[in-house]
């Protein structure tokens, strides 16, 4: 990559904190979307169908994966504190 490209995209440096913040923001957005979907179902009088159950299952899986990833990062960071000094 040329020097111009490196300077141009220097602001796009990703680290764990930025990635976790983006993941949390998207998880909140997904949760709000599912909540709005169920609110719309209640307002319109539509029944909850199997597609809604699958959406809830996917949302639970998403939140579970994010939490497990966060816990794994914390554990792996703590396990190396007695490494070679």
Descriptive account of the structure:
This protein is mainly α and 85 residues long. The chain has one domain (3-79). Helix content is 76%, strand content 0%. It has three helices and no strands. It has helices spanning 3-8, 16-44, 50-79. Helix 2 packs antiparallel against helix 3. The longest helix has 30 residues, at 50-79. It is elongated. It starts with a helix and ends in a 6-residue tail after the last helix. The relative contact order is 0.09. The mean pLDDT is 79.
Distance between the termini: 35 Å
Please indicate the count of domains.
1
Q: How much of the sequence is in beta strands?
A: under 5%
Number of strands: 0
Radius of gyration: 20 Å
**What is the average of the pLDDT values?**
79
Please give the count of helices: 3
Structural class: mainly alpha
Could you state the oligomeric state of the chains shown? single chain
Coarse morphology: elongated
Low-confidence stretches: none
Largest sheet: none
Task: Write down the secondary-structure element order.
Answer: HHH
Percent helix range: over 70%
Compact description:
The chain has 85 residues and is mostly helical. It is 76% helix and 0% strand.
List the main descriptive attributes of the protein structure presented here.
mainly alpha, elongated, single chain, 85 residues, 3 helices
Question: Which secondary structure elements does this structure contain, and how are they paired or packed?
Answer:
Blueprint: H1 3-8, H2 16-44, H3 50-79
């Amino acid at each position: 990559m040329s020097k111009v490209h490196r300077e141009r995209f220097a602001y796009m440096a990703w680290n764990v904190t930025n990635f976790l913040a983006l993941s949390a923001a998207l998880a909140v957005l997904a949760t709000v979307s599912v909540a709005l979907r169920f609110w719309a179902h209640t307002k319109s009088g539509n029944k909850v169908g199997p597609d809604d159950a699958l959406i809830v299952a996917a949302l639970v899986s998403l939140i579970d994966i994010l939490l497990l990833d966060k816990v794994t990062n914390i554990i792996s960071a703590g396990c190396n504190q007695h490494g070679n000094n």
